[in-house]
Design goal:
Structural class: alpha/beta
Helix content: 40-55%
Number of domains: 1
Number of helices: 12
Number of strands: 9
Distance between the termini: 52 Å
Strand order of the largest sheet: 1-9-8-2-5-3-4
Radius of gyration: 20 Å
Order of helices and strands: HHHHHEHEHEHEHEEEHEEHH
Length: 308
């Protein structure tokens, strides 16, 4: 049995085991049932019944694609709900499945090349809420000589938090809460090589002298922990770009954006990440999670006055 949060009450432990059993049963259902029956129901509920965060989605789309018509934006909105539904199914479908099944669902096309480039070094792997963002367990199989550290945001509900950690926990995966990322790496970097998996398009805490990036026609702040680690400890940095093949099946490639040795100015690594992510979103906007309140921080007045 997985190690659980000792602070869970007896009722919470029972609820966790019941939810886990449901997730395990769901993950073992036939592909057609999970993606084409349950997935269609999920899409209908999100899109046509509760209109999940539709105002947030449409506002984000209008600001990001001012050149598109309302009809085009509505089409992207509906496709976004389809993607969101599929990612919910993908996440639940990871519960306790084998490594072979995970690799069948997500193929990394340049895995051999990446392994040869990394060798026995630690590495930063950046991804985003684009496509199958819970695929870290699969990507971990690309680097079997490194411990894959999946950095996550703690969920307020302790039962759901423990459930999600159990779903994400596969062989060679170590889960670390985001606020402990730097400390975890520093404490363990001399013990074993690590692949730090970071979803870097999250909204960071607002702070003085924050750097802002031009992203989708808006000034945007990004999580820069990956760059900080890479420059301080000379770690290579990769961007992972997935592509949807069919429902529940993807393939992806890694792009090296920093080799660990190049002399670069501050924010260059994150800027390269931002540009690659922006290119992916422009190519397939429905794949990004537009329901997130991504632009709730207001940039400085001098930036707002500039035309992007």
């Amino acid at each position: 049995m997985d190690k659980q949060n000792p602070n869970l009450t007896r009722k919470q432990r029972i609820a966790l085991e019941l939810l886990w059993a449901l997730c395990r049963g769901f993950a073992l259902m036939p592909h057609f049932v999970r993606h084409h029956i349950v997935g269609s129901i999920c899409y209908f509920v999100l899109c046509d019944v509760i209109h999940y965060r539709r105002r947030v989605i449409m506002d984000n789309l209008r600001n990001s694609f001012p050149e598109k018509s309302e009809q085009e934006l509505n089409k992207i909105c509906r496709a976004t709900y389809r993607n969101l539904s599929e990612q919910i199914i993908n996440t639940l479908s990871q519960a306790g499945v084998s490594n072979e099944m995970l690799m069948h669902r997500m193929k990394v096309l340049d895995a051999d090349k990446v392994r040869a480039e990394i060798g026995d070094r630690s590495v930063i792997m950046l991804t985003a809420h684009y496509g199958p963002w819970e695929a870290g367990s699969t990507v971990s199989l690309v680097v079997p000589d490194q411990t894959f550290v999946a950095v996550y945001h703690k969920i307020t509900n302790p039962v759901i938090d423990e459930l999600m950690k159990r779903i994400r926990r596969h062989s060679n995966v170590e889960l670390v809460e985001m606020r402990h990322t730097m400390r975890h790496f520093v404490d363990n970097r001399n013990k074993r090589p690590m692949a730090m998996g970071l979803i870097a398009d999250q909204n960071p805490a607002l702070r003085a002298n924050m750097h802002w990036y031009k992203f989708l026609h808006q000034w945007t702040a990004f999580f820069e922990g990956g760059e900080t680690l890479a420059m301080k400890y000379h770690l290579p940095v990769y961007y992972f770009s997935p592509r949807r093949i069919s429902a529940g099946h993807y393939e992806g490639v890694f792009t090296m954006i920093y080799d660990g040795e190049e002399q670069v100015e501050p924010y260059t690594i994150t800027e390269r990440y931002v540009r690659l992510l922006e290119n992916d979103i422009n190519a397939h906007p429905e794949m990004w999670m537009w329901s997130h309140r991504r632009w709730k921080h207001i940039p400085p007045a001098e930036l707002q006055a500039q035309k992007i």
